[in-house]
Amino acid sequence: MLIAKDLWFRYHDDWIVQGTSLSLEPGDVVGLLGPSGCGKSTIARLLAGLLTPTTGEITVPPHDPGPYPVQLVLQHPERAMNPHWKIRDVLAESGAGEAAIAAVDPNLVNPGWLDRFPHEISGGELQRVNLARALLTDPAYLIADEITASVDALTQAQIWRLLLDQAGSNHIGVLAISHDRDLLTAIATRTIELG
Ligand SMILES: Nc1ncnc2c1ncn2[C@@H]1O[C@H](COP(=O)(O)OP(=O)(O)OP(=O)(O)O)[C@@H](O)[C@H]1O
User: Fold this and answer.
1) Quick check: helix, strand or coil at residue 10?
2) Class of domain 2-193
3) Cα 60 from Cα 46, distance rounded (Å)
4) Keyword Phosphoprotein, does the record have it (predicted)?
5) Which residues contact 157 (CB under 8 A, 6 or more apart)?
6) Which residue has the CA at smallest separation from atom 16 of ligand 1?
7) 3-class SS letters over 67-124
């Protein structure tokens, strides 16, 4: 289980995260909703181990050295990858070997993209690559922070279908962060509301 207990965090003087607690079980899909600036992305970074809470405790599943068991996928995939790397090298950053990359679901990553650079595929396609890279680390939990906020409704539905299929078959717990209450109602079994 991924457990956050009474998290407090501030970047400077103001407390951004004030006593947040939440838990996520393997296979759970939980929404996180709240107004802009209330600290959703900060909570995401705390859970993914990219920030350390000032006080409070985060329990993650035991894991070997290597990729962290809580992976974070962000809204802008182009900011999360080296623009000079081909897609196969972007995916290899997960630590996955050639065979695992070749075995990625072609609905998620079209094999024809592997020898292209990030700017040579669309934003929605690049987000699928971003998602595939996180999934290739074999995460126990995935935090999806506004991952479909920049794509059209059809692509949004397609990306969420792929993510939920993969999460379901690999028993991955998902925390879906969004401003879109309707989206969270459609995909999550429960939603935590902040602010
Ligand atoms: N690196 C940082 N340094 C200082 N302040 C920051 C930093 N990152 C975020 N903040 C501040 O922390 C607060 C919470 O930001 P955060 O991105 O967590 O909110 P959010 O709920 O995800 O917002 P949004 O829905 O607009 O993405 C904001 O006031 C923001 O300005």
Assistant:
1) coil
2) alpha beta
3) 11
4) no
5) none
6) 39
7) CCCEEEECCCHHHCCCCCCCHHHHHHCCCCCHHHHHCCCCCCCCHHHCCCCHHHCCHH
Per-domain residue ranges for the chain?
2-193
40, 176 Cβ separation under 8 angstroms: no
pTM, whole model, 2 decimals?
A: 0.95
Task: Give yes or no for residue 94 CB within 6 A of ligand 1.
Answer: no
* Pair 75, 147: CB distance under 8 Å: yes
- Average pLDDT by consecutive 10-residue portion of the chain (195 residues)? 97 96 96 95 97 97 88 96 98 96 96 98 97 97 96 94 96 97 96 92
Please give the distance, rounded to the nearest whole angstrom, from the Cα atom of residue 96 to the centre of ligand 1. Answer: 32
List the one residue out of 144, 138, 184, 177 whose CA is nearest residue 128. Answer: 144
- Residue 34 Cβ < 6 Å to ligand 1: yes
**ipTM entry:** 0.98
The verdict on the CB of residue 38 being under 6 Å from ligand 1 is yes
Cβ–ligand 1 distance for 75 under 6 Å, the answer no
Q: How many CB atoms lie within 10 A of CB 131?
A: 22
